[in-house]
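Appendix B, record 7
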Amino acid sequence: MLHYRRATVADAISLAPRLREADKNEFRAFLGLEPEVVLPFDIVGASGDNWALVGAEGVIGLFGVQPVDQHPLFGLVWMVSSDDLFKYRREFVKGTPEVLDMLHRKFPLLGNHIDARNTVHVRWLQRLGFVFLRTIPEFGVERRPFHEFARLRSTECA
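Structure tokens (predicted):
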């Protein structure tokens, strides 16, 4: 059974070496750093909400939303996972709208950039109703194509 809880630095340290290759490549392309360096910092240094996806194997994914300075209604949404997440595909897809509602309660507008090579996450974002605004042909330290995406909350949250 898949569930989520608040993420810890230990979760980031545990997950980083087991990330999907596409997620590792995205860290390298954007920042030029390995996930083992960036992911723990994202949890401890971030001022947003960070969550761990937990399965029978332990932590299999991390996700969250970070505030954007001077844009209080916009949150940078992110997620990384291990290949173990695919074992929970149906449960994950079914639970994602509830998680998006939770993230949208604080931020009516969610968005970020994604490595264009990360086709699994691109399809997933499209399925969730995110709109791809543009492709930036040379983004990050590796100057690779990244897609800019966003999703506006469609209803008022309680």
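Remarks on this record: The two ends are 27 Å apart (CA to CA). The longest strand covers residues 58-68.
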